[in-house]
Each structure stands twice: as structure tokens, then as C-alpha cells.
Amino acid sequence: MSFERITDLPREELIELVSIYAKNWLAHDGLWFQSIESKRGMDEAMEHDINAFSRFTVIEARRIKSFLDLPERAGIDGLRRALRFRLYAPLNQDEIAVEGNTLTYRVVSCRVQSARKRKGMEYHPCKAVGIPEYSEFAKIIDDRFETRCVSCYPDLTDMSCACIWRFSLQDI
Known about the structure:
Blueprint: H1 11-40, H2 42-67, H3 75-83, E1 93-99, E2 102-109, H4 111-118, H5 127-141, E3 145-152, E4 163-169
Antiparallel strand pairs: 1-2, 2-4, 3-4
Helix pairs in contact: 1-2, 2-5
């Protein structure tokens, strides 16, 4: 490949580059977390992770909403579309099911948990981070969303996947 700039890349290479960027971001996030975890313990690492993701998810959701040109209250379809454009979307295997005013987002395989397992590490207790992360993301897409964790480590209720989140559109 002899391209000089990103703008010179053909579609296939751009798609590959998006995946590389997502992996790089996730690797940086994991290394940052593990640095705090090894020095200060899981509790402090989680505190910082929750704080960071509570803010990051709002930025991410606003940018995706703008990029997709979603309306202020984008509803179920807007959230379905937006979830597919999250930074880690190319990395995890997921499923989305819509039933009436409820969207269920199921992460079948999670790159973070798979990496921790492969390294012999304790699973990341992501439920505590996921609650503000997914709730705030959904609220930016449409302020009528109520988010509920169905299954997520350490409170797994469905062992066939990494986590399950349910988003219900409320009448306001």
C-alpha cells in the first residue's frame, strides 16, 4: 500500500483502518484501566472508569447523533442505528432486537472480557460502568429512554453472552 493520506485510501482500506483505530482505542482504554488497577486496586480503577465513561459516552452519543443527522428524539430506530456506530462497534459481536417500544442490546462476545480471560485476569466488573454509559448514551439519542441492565458481569443472568441491556421508550 503506497497511500500518503487517509483521504487517499479506498473504501476497503478505510473500513480496515476503522477497525484498527477501534482496537487501538480499546487497547489504550484497557492499559489505562490496568495501570490504575495494578497500582490502586479494582475499586479505584472502577471509580475512574465510571467517571470517564459517564462523560465520554455523552460526547460519543452527540457526535454519532450529529453524524447520522438524527432528530432530537430519535426513538427506537435512532438508538438502533446509533449503537451500530459506537467506537467499539466493529470489535464486539452483538445483536439488537426490537419489540414495540423496547430495544434489547445483547453483546454476544466482548473483546474486553475475552482479553482478560485470555490473560488469566478477573473479569472486568463492567455493570457499574455500563449503567451510566448505556443510560447516558441512550438519553442523548432520545431523552425518553429508560435503561435497564438485564445481565452484565458481575451480575450475569444469561451465560450465553457478555451482557444484555434493555432500553424502553417512555411516554413523557
